Amino acid sequence: MLSATLALDPGSATTRLFTKTTNQQFDLPSVLTVPQGKQREEVVGTQTFSQVPVFPNSRVTDPRIAASFIRDVFHQATKQMTPFFPPQVLVSIGSTQTHVEQKALLSIIKSLTGGEVRGVADLFAAAVGLGVDTTASKTSVIVSLGQGTSSIGSIGSGALLSVQELECTGSSFIEALQKEIRSQYHLECVASEIEKILTRYGQQAQIAVQGKGPKGFAEYTIAMDMCEGVLSQAIQELVISIQRFLSGLPASSASCVLEEGLLLVGGVSQLEGLSSKLSKELCIPVSVAPDPMYAVMSGLKKILSYSIFEEIGSEQAGQMILGL
């Protein structure tokens, strides 16, 4: 084996790594266990450890934490491989990140691997993964609703034409529900319990969650209709943000959006009834991508098939490839 070829999608909640050489994919929580931290502490022997977020808001805030985490991820993926040359890595980078932030992530990976590293905007990768003809002159609009960051972007003619960060994220849904549950039930629930409510919203009248409340730490029953007002407000804020973005599109792009609508990706896009509510409010078609949590990785895999490390010439990969 001469060299390993890898695709990396670093997210605020989950980091995904695909090895083209062995056709394996790894999905790992984007946290690093470090000694004597302050968050989510756990004790192993006499040592206290904490799980620290690696990519809060899908950005590198501490290069040392990011480097340690990525090193561990690469080791896990390549430990059964014996390449002669450094790995080649294609990585998704946040579409709303500054050029400096994007280059910083690529530089960290370059320093760890010593191999060739290229980056592609996550919204562009998602479009490729969904089978959108990114070379066409017509405009497609992708809305990415992630756990830690959300964004909307227009894509056409082989480029990401415009992009905007959205304030409504999975975390904002969770925080709003936590506040409401605290107010109505005097109950403190961790994020993972709130996520259970989100994934089953609209499917059942009640749900059992664990948390610390009047009976101490125990299981409590929550009425799902309590979520309606909280989520409706969050969705309305999302609608306003999307309308603001769409209003800034040129007339030619706007006409494409009226016809084609929006494509939703990311974990929050799976919220029951979200696409229909957005469609009603925006008066345009809105659809959820098949397997929306893996749209970016699917696009990275397709772009790898263009042999971008051998020849940067694919129109589909186009202008969106950055390299070090």
Explain the overall architecture.
- The chain has 324 residues and is an alpha/beta fold.
- It has three domains: 3-126 and 295-323, ATPase, nucleotide binding domain (Nucleotidyltransferase, domain 5, 2-Layer Sandwich), CATH 3.30.420; 133-167 and 244-292, 2-Layer Sandwich (Nucleotidyltransferase, domain 5); 170-229, Actin, Chain A, domain 4.
- Helices cover 36% and strands 30% of the residues.
- The chain is built from nine helices and 16 strands.
- The chain has helices spanning 63-78, 99-113, 122-129, 170-185, 191-200, 226-247, 251-260, 274-282, 295-304, and strands at 3-10, 14-19, 24-29, 31-35, 42-44, 47-53, 85-93, 117-121, 140-145, 150-156, 159-166, 206-213, 216-223, 262-265, 286-288, 321-323.
- Strands 3-2-1-7-8-16 form a six-stranded mixed sheet, sandwiched between helices. Strands 11-10-9-14-15 form a five-stranded mixed sheet, with helices on both faces.
- Strand 12 (206-213) and strand 13 form a beta hairpin.
- Helix 3 crosses helix 9 (295-304) and helix 4 crosses helix 5 (191-200).
- The longest helix is centred in the C-terminal third of the chain and has 22 residues, at 226-247.
- Mean pLDDT is 83; it is low at 38-48 and 310-319.
